[in-house]
Amino acid sequence: LVYAENTEGKFKKSVFEAVSYARAIADQNNTSLTAISIGNVDAGILNELAKYGADKILNVANDQLKNFVNQAYASVIASAAKSEGSDVVVISNSFSGRGLAPRVAVKLEAGLADGTVALPEQNNGKFTVKKTAFSGKAFATIELTSANKIITLTPNSYQVTEKPTGATAQDFSVEPKESDFRAVLKEIAKAAGKISLPDAEIVVSGGRGLKGPENWHLVEDLATELGAATACSKPVSDAGWRPHEEHVGQTGIAVSPNLYIAIGISGAIQHLAGISSSKVIVVINKDAEAPFFKVADYGIVGDAFDVVPKLIEAVKAF
Ligand code: FAD
């Protein structure tokens, strides 16, 4: 079973990654794949899940479940897993996925591997899976020994793979329990039109080297040209130069984009903890000895105020 989380009625790429990943696990076990969506999603959008290998698409359209409620959504996913006889449940390692997965695991008495980055290996009845550990500083291979297993997949770590089945969505009705609504999300305040940081494929991030918020147009302009999300180091958000939800690292968000561009960030271990699973890291820093260069794939030793405007012009001309 794969949970297809919708964002305002649409599926993000990370959902198609999770469906493709779950399809591959189903194939490893010669079994079928069911996808479940909760909330208001149009049939045409739901049916996209069939393109990536869902044999069955369950749609839970219930007014009480219109907005995300951790406990209630976990109950629905667990009851779908039971009725489908699914012993592996795949969830995207998104904000809500991280809240849901342990709750589903409790309900199904399942082992949980969170933040996986590769397909499980299944040999001689053993089910092992590679995941990030210690805030992304290391990888761990863990074995799930329980009959039921919950996996959350790190975004950008598995390729979207088309495998059309032609399945169409069908209703799945559940009667949520009152006790599932003890804590209800009332409102999420968000900046309109910005690319979501945890799911971004490209991230442009700024540190204290940018001197002050008045210089952030450099980060924003480069991000706009690249279709990237913006991020920052902790001291930058602590100083109020940028909002806290942009802070990446051990105490902030962990990101795993295809490209992470760090401008004027020293590369402290606590910062690297949140970005080290990025595929390509580009560092711009005027100090050639900055620790960030040790983990960079590409580095420019130079003043951000010279380098970044040139980079923006180069991307514009590309
Ligand atoms: P600095 O360390 O001040 O580095 C600025 C860099 O900019 C320098 O390398 C400098 O050479 C360069 N620079 C200066 N001027 C220019 C210029 N004109 N052009 C180009 N480069 C220039 N930090 C995080 O980011 N995330 C976390 O989650 C986090 N969690 C923490 C948790 C704990 C418990 C602790 C103790 C610390 C944590 N920190 C975290 C803080 C971390 O240790 C560093 O202090 C922080 O990452 C440094 O931020 P910075 O690189 O922006 O600033």
TrEMBL record:
Any GO BP: fatty acid beta-oxidation using acyl-CoA dehydrogenase
Residue positions binding FAD: R208, G264, I265, S266, G267, A268, I269, Q270, H271, N285
Gene Ontology molecular function, alphabetical: electron transfer activity; flavin adenine dinucleotide binding
Parts of the chain that traverse the membrane: none
Pfam families the record matches: ETF (PF01012), ETF_alpha (PF00766)
Family: Belongs to the ETF alpha-subunit/FixB family.
UniProt protein name: Electron transfer flavoprotein subunit alpha/FixB family protein
Organism: Mucilaginibacter straminoryzae
